Amino acid sequence: MPPLRGTALPACLAVAFGLYLLPSAFVAPAPFVRPTASVATPRGQVALAARGGDEYDVSDADIQTFYEETISGSGGDPPKGSITAELIVKHFHGVWDDRGTFTRYSGQWKGPPPGGIGKKDIAIGIAGLKEQMKLGKHVVKGGPGKDETQKVVDDGKGWVWLAADMSPGGLAVQLYTSVPYGKRPLLVAKRSEVDTMFEKVNWGLMDKRIDTTMGGPQVIQR
């Protein structure tokens, strides 16, 4: 047998040495574990329970809690200069026709100062909001379905909601007679008890609520 040349290794030693130097890619990776989301529930925010990872359930108990927080104040109209007051004036100070088309008031706001939204304008906007909440007529579909065909106009629970959402023209408010999943509810009342809600409404909750999404992850946009 001819002698080994240079530093060549026997085949068995080469294989063993190669296995020793193999990278750690041959070690099975630890299984991926999706982190469990924790949802904070400060006052004014409905507790949301994760279901299936991307959906959230709003129970009747959650709605009742939201309502009780809504009526934890001293009533009256929202304060002048607040976002909620201006949204209500913008979307309920005007006239609805029989086809459900809303024509916004286009005159000069009463102020003070003249031209600015003042208490008189807010009072008219609130009156329009109360009327529409009682009628429950000009409402938007709600519910947990992602597909528009799965949403409903009225879920039969008897509640009427005022909720905010981003629109092409900026933040806007609309009425719902089904749970406004994915929106930012501000107020809720039984349609038969709208005046009772406004007698006790807590306007101090609105700045928090306008940034809190119901039935989904929190989204902050203004």
Write the layout of secondary structure elements.
Blueprint: H1 11-21, E1 49-51, E2 55-57, H2 60-70, H3 83-92, E3 94-96, E4 102-104, H4 119-135, E5 159-167, E6 170-176, E7 184-190, H5 194-200, H6 206-209
Antiparallel strand pairs: 1-2, 3-4, 5-6, 5-7
Helix pairs in contact: 3-4
Give a nutshell description of this structure:
It is built from six helices and seven strands. It is α+β, with helices and mostly antiparallel strands. It is globular.
> What is the helix fraction of residues, given as a range?
25-40%
How many beta-strand runs? 7
Our count of helices gives 6
N-to-C series of helices and strands: HEEHHEEHEEEHH
Class from secondary-structure proportions: alpha+beta
Biggest sheet record:
3 strands, antiparallel
Principal-axes geometry comes out as: globular
Tell me the strand percentage band: 15-25%
Low-confidence stretches: 1-54
Mean pLDDT: 78
Instruction: Give the strand order, joined by hyphens, for the main sheet.
Output: 6-5-7
Keywords: Signal
InterPro entries: SOD_C_sf
Signal peptide: 1-18
